[in-house]
Amino acid sequence: MSKENPNAPLCVTTALPDCPQVAMAYVPFQQMSETYDPEKALHCGTLFPELNKPFHGCRKGGKQ
Q1: Is 55 exposed, middle or buried (CB count within 10 Å of its CB: 0-12, 13-18, 19+)?
Q2: Which helix (H) or strand (E) holds 41?
């Protein structure tokens, strides 16, 4: 809501739609940025550093 119009939806500036609706799932648009060189991209499984999210967890029961 805004001070000018208390019934207006609250809108935020992000990579999401202008006025995202409650209870709707959204995936933000990827902003093009730096990229890995081809060899590192193949090793990491992604061209984009911001998508490089290695999993360092463990299996159920604490075993790796």
Answers
A1: exposed
A2: helix 38-44
Domain boundaries, the chain: 11-53
Q: pTM, whole model, 2 decimals?
A: 0.46
What DSSP assignment string belongs to 8-60? SPP---SSS-SSPPTT----PPPPP-----HHHHHHHT-S-GGG--------T
Each residue's pLDDT tens digit, 7-61: 665 554 566 777 878 888 877 777 788 999 999 999 999 999 989 998 888 777 6
